[in-house]
Amino acid sequence: MEHKLPEMLAQRIYGLALGYEDLNDHEQLRSDPLLGVLSGKRKLEEPLAGKSTLNRLELTGRSKRYHKIGYSAEAIDRLLVDLYIESRPEGTRAMPSEVVLDLDATDIPLYGHQPERFFHGYYDSYCYLPLYIFAGDQLLCAWLRPANQDAAAGSVEEVSRIVVQLRERWPEVKIVLRADSGFCREVLMAWCENNSVDYVFGLQRNRRLRRIVGAEMHQAHMLHQTTGKAARLFTEFDYRTHKSWSRARRVVAKAEHLDNGENPRFVVTSLTPDKWAAQDLYEKFYCARGEMENRIKEQMCLFADRLSTDEMKGNQLRLYFSALAYTMIEALRRLALSGTEWAQAQVDTIRRKLFKIGAIVRISARRIMLQLSSAYPWKEIYAQAFNALRC
């Protein structure tokens, strides 16, 4: 039995999208005619690849006797950015006005003795620490890293690669990086300033920053006592650390007092006050990065945490499979579900309500017929998505 590489890749990625995280599931799925159609198989009477064949596909460093397939991480990284560029609607593909790149790291807990396994004090577990970069809802980078390093480690290299690729298509595009305080590092800010890239990063609070906003914190406290409600004031100032920063930078501060006490917050930015006033910069621009955390959670819905192979390269490939499955579902959401109640639905909601529905499958010599239940409650949305995706 011979299995083509595109069929095996499609089988694995569609399986993740459909909710089948384990290779063992494919011992039954390999005989599923609809998965065969999705995978591009022409002879549906023949089974797809089984769990052992798919396992050898993922174990990229094994003996050449059993493994003849490798992968290029650089090519997959470039593909993710190319898919974002090509997703621009016709007529606006020339250049967007602005591209905001959201960066964040997350933990993937480990329960075995995987390579480069380290304990991370913040997450209180043995884990990996992958770096994710998004542009809106679209995933541009999923890079697996060990946990014995800073959250921003390697971010300059990944951002540089993405910026170069974006500017190959859009030379004059405005690019802004947005991230929490884990990425507020001199090396990243200096790179942005030297490459005409703006940034907005969270800034870890300290005693010196608290003293600077002391007057505003007192005003917020008095306002809270007067109204009995949460009170917040905004201010901005130029700030430079004693040693780590090479220059002074604009810092926006939120002086907030809640029922349980003070809650000051700070961001550092290269954006000027004439473009973004202090309050709008924090509330409308910086806080919007929280939506990226929902997109990272969706990676776990696609089993990005199933990194149990005993080699780093194999685990990176699994992370790529989950990233590609997400890219496919994000495109479905953007192209086929726009304007419906599922336009912003999570991956698991789309899977449960749109993918995993009952049907009778009839296969003849010339066609495959699906008979869906007339009682299916979302048949109008299903029909809209079907018609939007028809070639």
Q: If you had to describe this structure to a student in words, what would you say it looks like?
A:
The chain is an alpha+beta fold. The protein has helices at residues 5-17, 26-29, 33-38, 51-58, 73-86, 155-169, 186-194, 207-212, 214-227, 278-286, 290-301, 312-335, 347-355, 379-389; strands spanning 98-105, 108-109, 118-120, 125-128, 131-135, 138-143, 174-179, 198-202, 231-239, 249-258, 261-262, 265-269, 359-363, 368-372. 31% of the residues are buried.
Question: Gap between N and C termini, in Å?
Answer: 32 Å
Biggest pleated sheet = 9 strands, mixed
Number of strands: 14
Topology as a string of helices (H) and strands (E): HHHHHEEEEEEHEHEHHEEEEHHHHEEH
Low-confidence stretches: none
List keywords for this structure.
three-stranded antiparallel sheet; 14 helices; alpha+beta; 14 strands; 391 residues; nine-stranded mixed sheet
